[in-house]
Specification:
Helix content: 25-40%
Structural class: alpha+beta
Low-confidence stretches: none
Number of helices: 3
CATH class: Alpha Beta
Distance between the termini: 28 Å
Shape: globular
CATH architecture: 2-Layer Sandwich
CATH superfamily: HPr-like
Order of helices and strands: EHEEHEH
Radius of gyration: 11 Å
Strand content: 25-35%
Strand order of the largest sheet: 1-4-2-3
Number of domains: 1
Number of strands: 4
């Protein structure tokens, strides 16, 4: 199990486009993913769940991955968030 608490630094937080990009990246991995914000936990591979968190710029979220590629998943999602959801 890998766990990471990270601050959202992109202007939109985890809404619409950033949430879709997040799910695309997370879905490349087999591990299960849970995101927690505001004491609410949701499936990290569900765009509806992520958007329901209402996580905005400057807020912290906690990612918890469980599975065979959990470390790689967390590293990729950390890079995505730190890069402000820019995909090249």
């Amino acid at each position: 199990m890998e766990k990471l608490t990270i601050k959202l630094n992109n202007p939109e937080g985890l809404h619409a486009r950033p949430a879709a990009i997040f799910v695309q990246v997370a879905s490349k991995y087999q591990s299960e993913l849970e995101i927690e914000a505001h004491e609410v936990k949701v499936n990290g591979k569900s765009i509806i769940g992520i958007m329901s968190l209402g996580a905005f710029n400057g807020e912290e979220i906690t990612l918890t991955a469980k599975g065979q590629d959990d470390k790689q998943m967390i590293q990729a999602l950390k890079a995505l968030i730190e890069g402000e959801f820019k995909v090249y």
